[in-house]
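Q: Can I see a sequence and its folded structure?
A: Here is a first one.
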Amino acid sequence: MTIDTSTPPLLSIDGPVATLRLNRPAQANRIEPADLPVLLQHCERIARDSAIRAVILTGTGKHFSAGYDLTSILQSVEEDPHARHAVNPFGTMVDTLEALPQPVICALNGGVYGGATDLALACDLRLGVPHSKMFMPAARLGLHYYLSGMRRYVSRLGFNTAKRLFLFAEEMDAAQMLSTGFIERIVPAEQLEQAAREAAHAAAAMAPLAVRGMKAALNALAQDKLDPEQFAATETQCLRSADIQEGVTAWQQKRAPVFHSR
């Protein structure tokens, strides 16, 4: 008898690195409606904790994620059939992940499908394995994708690749994912977690004020929503910070800097 060990997404924290783990391997880590508030709570906790400097997102088992439960999307529309605009709650959760102030590394431990492809694109660095593959079945299912997800596809992968994936439902293997920029690197499966940890600790060693400011600015640029006044204020804050003094001093002394986010 097989015991189902599936749970809602898990959060663990090890020093400056938090790990979010999709944990329904028997269902290819499909994301259920009840998982959305859990993921939102995890993201809110991470965002509030200045001691967390980087985040890893991964899945348990041989799949990263089969995406969001499609029947739940239909149910959410049917709950208010007279609403002028239907809201996809999955997209709201992905937007929250994208807005995390810390760099997020996605360790794609296998196939990534449907809405999980957008979850991966919301991350700042994506690592894959040789058996990684992706597929966006929206057009085959009659699903019009949500706006922020389409924006991420275009800003990360480019207009033509986004068209191929959305309108023709093309599947991509790991090599194609690498060539289009869906993943930045392919590593042996047994080395994926270590590679993700190394990337996370590299990000955690950077100056947090500068990293958070530049991530917010880059996301705003991708959305064509950059506020020049806010950008200038953040830039000035970093130029006047103790962190930049520490960074310059450590560079001159040929040692690793110790930043305190101030």
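Q: Show me another, different protein.
A: A second, unrelated one:
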Amino acid sequence: MKAVRVKQWGQPLQLEEIPQPVPGNDEVLVRVRASSVNPIDGVIAAGHMQEMYSLPITLGTDFSGDVVSVGREANHVQPEDAVYGMSLQRGTFAEFAAVKASGVARKPRSLDYVQAAAVPLTALSAWQTLFDLAKLQRGERLLIQGAAGGIGAFAVQMAKEKGAYVMGSDIPDKGDFLRELGTDQVIDAMGERFEDVVGHVDVVLDLVGRDLVERSFNVLSPGGRYVTTIGKPSQEEAQKRGIEAHTTFTQPTVEELTQIAQLIDAGKLKVFIGRTFPLEEAAAALEFKQEGVTPGKVGIVVD
């Protein structure tokens, strides 16, 4: 099968012919139809996570496709089911992938394969930060830093569906996209200080980090919750301020993937594709993603 591989850290990606994987007892073998690019793909390829992965490695986390076979412990999907999900073992920039069963669920019926592959990691990250960690409630005021990115776009929609008031901060070129998502208050991250315009905030979802950590702490009301996918916020500082601070490493679950698919099929979550590339041009897809100019996910068409 064809697969996009990292052979040396920091070196160009290679398209290779490698053996088709054999699924374990707790895995599902998927004929991959599409994948999508996430920032972690570039991080891994550059060699910044060498302590977690060994070479050679096939890149790719998100996928959609069709079930070929299932292990003995994977009984919630069957061969020929159309599925989507994510693999923490990576390996989805390929024609076939053996994925842990916990990361595989039936794909949204209303989406094609490319659209479905754009959902898993970003939507699960939004879901788990907002609902599993921050426990966002109807009527609360949510500030999202980096709201027009892949995670932010889903977070805006999920929070609006929950009944929260959503403030989204990003570069001015992405203001129209944030309004299209339904953001209640769009903040120009380059032209105004969010501290001056947000009022009280119950929850901050920080997808940017750096100096925004302390600045986000400053706008949270007592009992507020700061959640992020980047770094580890100071628990000592959070306790001093009477707030909570959490970080997450997104973990796939069948239940949450299924709930997200149901929201999509009910028309409550929209999926945005910025551009697609064939599998053979995965390196160009990563470069395009890193430019970060066009809203929407970057898809990789495998078949």
